[in-house]
Amino acid sequence: MKKLEDLILTYKDFPKKGIDFKDVLEILQYPDIFQDLILKMSSNQFLENAEAIISIDARGFIFGSALALGSSKPMIVARKPGKLPGQLLTREYDLEYGKNSLSIQYNSLKKFNSFVIVDDLLATGGTVNCVSRLLHDQKKEIIGLITVVELKKLKGRSKLNFPVHSMITI
After folding, report:
1. pTM, whole model, 2 decimals?
2. Per-residue pLDDT tens for 26-44?
């Protein structure tokens, strides 16, 4: 039987030369492994202590929506440019291979004060840090980050001022 670690595929030189892209999408082809992963992620104390989940575009939506369903917690999305209507909170961030920005709908944050951030992968911490700055600007509390994979050598965890729980560290 396949193990979770075996389903994290590496694509060399993607999206540009020198980057080893870690892809978690293979996990979705094994429903038993995906279900076990979601059950383990759902048991995290961060989730219990948060009022809502914020999932990061796009693979974070897969895991965040499953966690939201399993925990009966509301889910809010942080999306890339041009993907959300309405009044937006937007912030730019650096990637290991460029720049991007994320937006959250202003009205989606009003009812909640504490959040757990969910994403597929923690690398340099730029994306998660962007979301945390958006939340802090609105005086919201971040309980922690739950991620499937953490790339330890890129030290993203060290740039965050809240707890991190990674299912796999490589």
Report:
1. 0.95
2. 999 999 999 999 999 999 9
